[in-house]
């Protein structure tokens, strides 16, 4: 443990003594009062060591009697390492200590304390006995208390840090042994093949052999933990799934001396786990400990599995809050309770069983056995959490009743797969019967924590979420069909499917309670989902816990910590959906609340604990608008009366569109292999692409020579990150036999980020999605005449911004850009068409009574208007949910002329004059050097360290007023113009130009000029 930062002069210490003096003045001496200042002191100290202080901590002594310790200090894994017991001023402390010893209070590290005296026991012996009226002695007692680490805890913490290094090696050793036995041991091969076919039938017909081998490895590596921590030596003979896997395991191990001998390299870790578990005084602590083990196991065993399934268990404050809220909803909305007969409850993604265990605590003892046998249900598709959930739930029942009863409400099954029509036997006859009983039950409550993640980031990982024909079709026909967004892939995220599944599963009435990614709350792609949720339910309550780490700058700080102990990066929310049988055609009541900005993870958890349930949350009812927006606060209704820059309908329609400014628009190019197809150096780009294509074609020739091509292409291809970057579309082309050919004419100029020009290999073969850019910049010569206004896509993560370009922009150019070109072409560069609609031209001319207005004028008017600070501020909420809408203003030409000036400035930034007052300070005695590795600003940003030879001084503060999202223009340049080496491929991207050694330093001077002139033009824009 780290040393406490405490001194007698510190405010915490001074406040402690001041409070005691105030109590003394009023003759307050009883324990309930005088213990409070010390509890506050302990809490402050605990925060310094990243622990948790819990007052009035109930536990069981070694004598099995229930005791309540005045305080416990838990480490970051939830294990207790210190205790505190307070007495009042009149108590005989040694006598009180003896009484506590007799009751079985823990003596490994406990501080017995009165305001005058502290007795510290460690390892069953008195370690300190001090007068703590003196601040120095008080601090000494606290330092001793917090510096002690029980040996079992010390071993556990060391083992956890080593686990990631050791488990993968042993798992790989097991995998090699399994593969060898496939070839040499007919008994094992038969047992494994039978189990593999069972798994394919039960879970997924496309399940790979590797995935089943991983299940076997998980079982072998963890079986000892279940035997020792829960003292369940009969686990593998009682659990219906473990029985089947144990047959395969036994066949694998039958030639080894013993399983324990084989696993000896992990013996130190097993012992550490077992010793640490002895610190857990009761079942709830053991449950938390086992959850932590589960998390750490998968972080070491398989990062891919952890990513696909979201291996982070739900913190207890969330579970408590949700269960309390569901109980209240049942009572107030339906006149029922968790204990009532007929109230069937399901956790469809049970994980380690936290929700079911917590629900069982609130079910009346007289009703628990009936509920346990018939009305509690859950599914888990992964083996290890299925085991842990089974043990946790069965142990919880044993704790309440004193009777062991196997929990038959849990099934090893994929909840979404159960929607498919054809269901063969699911692992075992008993597991199948459990599923059938579950399907036949009328579910009244759905509760849980669905998996969150979206599609995989890198196709080389071969780590996709699987597809579900029935579930995906349901999403397509509802949420997707009614979405107006251009990009809808996020609607197939697992948590979105969970909402759809639960909406159907509870039938005519019931409650759904989920803690999920909160992106659906305001994401533009989720408008169709929000529409159906409001149709399907009577009341909706949502608590936005924020914590989105995929933001930046001030917005990131406002999001605060993630309530899942900062273990995930998406924002989180808790949702309650109430469906009444008397539902009308009116949309649901939607009640919303967002926690305060800047809260840390533990503060959010404490908030949930303090609130207790949803009825104590100060929610506000929202008014749903016609676009199915729930977060309508700040939206300006007049925005809808302005002219939209574009719409999906106009893009899809034939001929000239009415009602919009632009006929066509597009997001930027998505390459999905930036390191390979972008490079500052044209020669390096060419070499990278030729290498990739040769490797791809080599694998293609091997594929073509195969007689059997029925195998999954993912099991065939080589995914060496240093040779190739696979994507969905490249795999599709591979399967159809499309060869890759390099062509120099496909190397084009691109704007990768603001004021960051790069070479791009622009071709459908090597780019994941080019969208309509082959008809916007089809050839280099069109870059001389065409321009496009790129605006940040509607989203809540960044402020609105815009930048004009005359070259192909990347998808993330200004923050997921939507680009509106002036011209469009055929893909061969012919048939140039103006993209401003004839309808818009007529509307502008009619409004201003000016037939001299041209489409170029409207184009520049729009660009100028989009820069207006008042427009951005007034309509910021609208711009986070919709593409810009353009109003008529009083001074058309003022905006048009300003927009033209801005356009010329931004498009031709490389020819702008350099800022004359920028001083180039050279380091004395160093050779002239214009190369950049990584530039760095001074603290006040008036200087920029270019390299060891050169520092640029005199940067005006106004430069930073020209911002494009999270950075100023100059900060974008400094961020992008540095030497980068891609982590996965090893590809180097060097921005330095041999032929133009001063290009970067001159670019900085030019972008400073661009920034200052932009700020000046914007400052002088006409009033709205």
Structural commentary:
By secondary structure, this protein is α+β, with helices and mostly antiparallel strands. 42% of the residues lie in helices and 15% in strands. It contains 34 helices and 35 strands. The strands form 9 sheets. A 9-stranded mixed sheet has the order 9-8-7-10-11-13-12-14-15, with helices on both faces. A hairpin with a 3-residue loop joins strand 4 (109-113) and strand 5 (117-122). Helix 29 (855-866) packs across helix 32. The longest helix is centred in the N-terminal third of the chain and has 34 residues, at 151-184. The protein is globular, with a radius of gyration of 33 Å. The relative contact order is 0.05. Residues 306-311 and 454-463 have low confidence and may be disordered.
Features:
globular, 1024 residues, six-stranded mixed β-sheet, alpha+beta
């Amino acid at each position: 443990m780290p040393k406490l930062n405490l001194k007698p002069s510190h405010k915490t210490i001074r406040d402690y003594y001041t409070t005691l003096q105030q109590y003394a003045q009023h003759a307050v001496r009883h324990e309930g009062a005088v213990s409070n200042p010390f509890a506050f002191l302990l809490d402050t100290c605990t925060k310094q060591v990243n622990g948790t202080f819990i007052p009035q901590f109930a536990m069981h002594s070694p004598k099995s009697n229930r005791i309540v310790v005045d305080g416990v200090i838990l480490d970051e894994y939830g294990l207790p390492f210190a205790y505190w017991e307070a007495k009042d001023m009149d108590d005989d402390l040694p006598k009180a200590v003896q009484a506590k010893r007799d009751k079985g209070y823990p003596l490994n590290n406990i501080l017995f304390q009165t305001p005058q005296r502290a007795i510290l026991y460690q390892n069953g012996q008195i370690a300190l006995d001090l007068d703590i009226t003196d601040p120095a002695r008080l601090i000494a007692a606290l330092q001793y208390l917090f510096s002690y680490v029980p040996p079992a805890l010390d071993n556990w913490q060391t083992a956890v840090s080593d686990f990631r290094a050791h488990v993968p090696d042993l798992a790989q050793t097991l995998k090699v042994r399994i593969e060898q036995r496939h070839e040499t041991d007919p008994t094992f091969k038969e047992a494994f093949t039978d189990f593999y076919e069972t798994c394919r039938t039960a879970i997924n017909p496309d399940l790979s052999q590797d995935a089943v081998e991983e299940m076997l490895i998980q079982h072998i590596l963890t079986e000892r933990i279940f035997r020792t921590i829960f003292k369940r030596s009969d686990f593998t003979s009682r659990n219906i799934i473990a029985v089947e896997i144990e047959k395969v395991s036994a066949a694998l191990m039958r030639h080894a001396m013993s399983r324990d001998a084989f696993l000896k390299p992990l013996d130190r870790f097993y012992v550490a786990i077992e010793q640490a578990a002895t610190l857990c005084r009761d079942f709830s602590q053991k449950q938390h400990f086992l959850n932590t083990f589960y998390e750490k196991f998968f972080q070491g065993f398989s990062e891919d599995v952890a990513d696909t399934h979201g291996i982070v268990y739900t913190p207890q404050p969330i579970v408590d809050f949700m269960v309390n809220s569901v109980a209240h909803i049942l009572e107030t909305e339906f006149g029922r309770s968790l204990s009532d007969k007929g109230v069937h409850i399901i956790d469809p993604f049970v994980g380690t069983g936290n929700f079911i265990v917590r629900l069982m605590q609130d079910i009346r003892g007289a009703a628990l056995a009936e509920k346990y046998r018939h009305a509690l249900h859950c599914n888990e598709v992964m083996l290890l959490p299925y085991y842990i959930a089974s043990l946790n739930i069965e142990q919880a029942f044993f704790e309440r009743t004193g009777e062991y009863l196997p929990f038959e409400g849990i099934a090893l099954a994929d909840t979404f797969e159960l929607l498919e029509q054809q269901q063969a036997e699911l692992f075992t006859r008993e597991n199948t019967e459990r599923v059938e009983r579950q399907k036949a039950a009328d579910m009244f409550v759905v509760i849980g924590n669905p998996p969150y993640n979206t599609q995989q980031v890198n196709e080389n990982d071969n780590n996709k979420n699987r597809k579900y024909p029935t579930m995906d079709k349901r999403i397509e026909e509802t949420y997707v069909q009614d979405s107006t967004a251009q990009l809808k892939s996020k609607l197939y995220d697992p948590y979105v499917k969970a909402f759809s599944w639960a909406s159907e599963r509870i039938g005519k009435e019931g409650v759904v309670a989920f803690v999920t990614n909160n992106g659906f709350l305001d994401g533009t792609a989720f408008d169709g989902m929000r529409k159906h949720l409001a149709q399907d339910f009577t009341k909706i309550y949502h608590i936005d816990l924020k914590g989105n780490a995929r933001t930046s700058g001030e917005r990131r700080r406002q999001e605060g910590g993630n309530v899942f102990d900062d273990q995930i990066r998406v924002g989180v929310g808790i949702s309650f959906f109430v469906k009444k049988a008397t539902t009308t055609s009116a949309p649901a009541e939607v009640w919303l609340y967002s926690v305060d900005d800047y809260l840390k993870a533990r503060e959010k958890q404490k908030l949930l604990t303090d609130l207790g349930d949803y009825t104590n949350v100060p929610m506000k009812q929202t008014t749903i608008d016609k676009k199915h927006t729930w977060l309508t606060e700040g939206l300006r209704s007049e925005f809808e009366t302005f002219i939209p820059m574009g719409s999906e309908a106009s893009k899809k329609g034939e001929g000239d569109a009415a009602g919009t400014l632009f006929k066509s628009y597009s997001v930027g190019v998505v390459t999905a292999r930036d390191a390979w197809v972008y490079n500052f150096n044209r020669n390096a780009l060419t070499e990278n692409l030729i290498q990739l294509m040769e490797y791809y074609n080599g694998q293609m020739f091997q594929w073509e020579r195969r007689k059997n091509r029925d195998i999954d292409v993912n099991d065939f291809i080589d995914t060496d990150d240093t040779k190739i970057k696979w994507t969905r579309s490249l795999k599709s082309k591979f399967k159809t036999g499309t060869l890759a050919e390099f062509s120099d004419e496909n190397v084009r100029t691109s704007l990768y980020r603001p004021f960051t020009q790069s070479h791009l290999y622009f071709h459908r073969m090597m780019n994941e999605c080019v969208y309509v850019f082959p008809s916007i910049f089809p050839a280099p010569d069109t870059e001389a005449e065409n321009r496009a206004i790129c605006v940040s896509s509607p989203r809540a993560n960044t402020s609105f911004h815009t930048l004009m370009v005359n070259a192909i922009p990347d998808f993330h150019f200004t923050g997921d850009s939507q680009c509106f070109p002036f011209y469009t072409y055929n893909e061969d560069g012919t048939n140039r068409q103006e993209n401003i609609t004839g309808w818009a031209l007529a509307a502008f001319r009619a409004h201003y009574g000016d037939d001299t207005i041209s489409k170029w004028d409207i184009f520049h008017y729009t660009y100028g208007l989009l820069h207006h600070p008042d427009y951005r501020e007034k309509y910021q909420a609208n711009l986070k949910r919709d593409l810009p809408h353009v109003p008529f203003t009083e001074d058309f030409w003022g905006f048009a002329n300003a927009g033209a000036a801005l356009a010329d400035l931004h498009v031709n930034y490389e020819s702008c004059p350099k800022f004359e007052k920028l001083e180039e300070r050279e380091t004395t005695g160093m050779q002239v050097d214009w190369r950049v590795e990584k530039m760095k600003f001074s603290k006040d940003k008036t200087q920029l360290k270019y390299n060891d030879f050169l520092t640029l001084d005199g940067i005006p503060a106004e430069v930073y007023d020209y911002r494009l999202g999270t950075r100023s223009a100059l900060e974008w340049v400094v961020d992008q113009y540095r030497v980068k080496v891609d982590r996965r491929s090893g590809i180097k991207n060097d921005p330095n130009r041999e032929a133009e050694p001063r290009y970067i330093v001159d670019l900085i001077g030019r972008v400073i000029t661009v920034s200052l002139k932009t700020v000046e033009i914007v400052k002088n824009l006409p009033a709205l």
